[in-house]
Design brief:
Elements lengths: L2 H10 L3 H10 L10 H11 L3 H9 L3 H10 L7 H10 L3 H14 L3 H8 L5 H17 L7 H14 L5 H17 L4 H11 L16 H10 L13
Amino acid sequence: MTKDEVIRELELYGNPDTKRILMIHGACEPFYGIKVQDLKKIAKKVKQDYQLSLDLFETGNSDAMYLAGLIADAERMTKDDLQNWAQKAYWYMISEYTVAWIAAESNFGFELALKWIDSKQENIASTGWSTLSSLVAIKEDEYFDMGKLKELLSRVKSKIQLAPNRVKYTMNGYVISLGASIVSLTEESMCVAKHIGKVHVDMGETACNVPFAPEYLQKIIDKGRVGKKRKTARC
């Protein structure tokens, strides 16, 4: 399918109620307001398509940008592609999910994540932390420098309460993902989770809450799911 054909298909799935909810969360015009399950239907029809994913992301339409992530060929994504996406992802559903997922599945995820978390731009820094969370969830432990992961955990411990809203949220997510994904760091992650306690993030008029990391981690431990890796960052 061409970009224009996909856009016409997207328009058919537009839902006013979904659009209203997404706008409360941060989406801006132009977009149609499409449920994720419907975007996945289109993705199944389109299949993986590197160039089409780039073209869709460039439209600036939130629905198209999310779909771009579902059909992206992560292994073909270049550093420039990913940096461009990170710069243009204007709200968290795109920056912390679409971009972070594809970055984590690409050949440059860890390198870019470390670069992004140092950004002064809130959306890029949060993309970096979210990318790290996805990386530890899908990559085998041997992929990582454990000393670096511990260093990042210490950084969260000392910096999270003064970080911008979405950076706080994704730092908290990193603590949970690290503890859930890497057995040797579960205990240390739990200690940090207890130290930082309740993380307060301004979620606007949404009904969303920040996961309480100690409780969330404990549930994963109790279910015996620690160390279980996912096949893909995308979901």
